[in-house]
Amino acid sequence: MLLVLAVGCWDPLPSGSESDYLATSTRLTTRDGATIALHHHPAKGPPVLLVHGISSNHHYFDLDAQHNLASWLAERGHDVWMLDLRGHGDATYGEHGRQFDGWTVDDYGEYDVDAAITYIQRVTNAPRVDYIGHSMGGMVGAIYAVRHGEAALGAMVVLGSPAAFSLQDPLVGLAALGMAAGGQSLLWVETPAFAGVAADLKGAVPFHLDRRLYNPANYSKDTVDAMLRQIVSPLARTEMKHFGRMLHDERFESWDRKVDYRAALHDVDIPLLAIGSARDQVVPASGVQAFADAMGGERAFFLASGGNVANDYGHLDYALAESAPTEIFPMVEAWLAKR
């Protein structure tokens, strides 16, 4: 996520920060032996799993009391679970030490999301789990649906999640080069350090590269500082190589190139709400529209820009903008509640 700045076994887990004031946390072991972390905002309604994007963690949905999609949904009756994928957030360390490499984007959907949904079904007795994914989080939800089927999934919402790429988009081309270079030469990219530097510079990042990630009109300075310090996790080498390959091929595909996930989504019948923005400089609105168009079931697309919102949304803004609780959250909750 912050690459632009650089151009089942379980045990109780302590809360990561003050923003987890309502959450209880659990570590799980996946079928391939990795460690993930689940954070729970309990309520009596249907369960929903929230999954973060690339180089991020669960704090994207649970930053503080004012910027908190997780608690907002829980207060309205949804039983909220947030996932830290392997190597991210409170799953940075596993049973055998730091998890920093050796997996692809496929593994997030094949193993991590599967372990989370299986655990949630077991402890809640719910037949289905709703799903909300930001950026890559939506992509790994799609991978899960393609590889495991749709039986365990209820409604789905994706925020800035692409199913198509075009090298004609300047940032996609730049990201393809950066991912390929990082995947070949680095074991992992310590993006939290870059984010911390950006926070320390307080808006003085050269060329305002950080603002490719968000629209400053949607934030207070304190929120930007908290966001940069809390929501960032490292990028793994094999993860970067997989993304670099997808971007180069202009195709949402498996690591072995045998599965075209975008094409496979036509056989997945899940009610889908996709939200994108013309102001999103990381994932073009056309890429999010392609996600909606690919889904085989009921689907809707909302453009969080133009006259539809007070200020156009950047890539991080869907859950963190000051206006998100009044403009985006009600739409998300209504989609889940209706279905």
The first-level CATH class name: Alpha Beta
For the biggest sheet, the summary is:
9 strands, mixed
Determine the mean pLDDT.
Answer: 87
Oligomeric category: single chain
For the secondary structure, the number of strands is 13
**Domains counted in the coordinates: how many?**
1
Radius of gyration: 18 Å
- The strand line-up of the biggest sheet is 1-2-3-5-4-8-9-12-13
The name of the CATH superfamily reads Alpha/Beta hydrolase fold, catalytic domain
Taking the alpha carbons of the first and last residues, their distance comes to 31 Å
The structural class is alpha/beta
Give the percentage of residues in beta strands: 15-25%
Label the CATH architecture: 3-Layer(aba) Sandwich
- Catalogue the unreliable spans: 1-21, 185-201
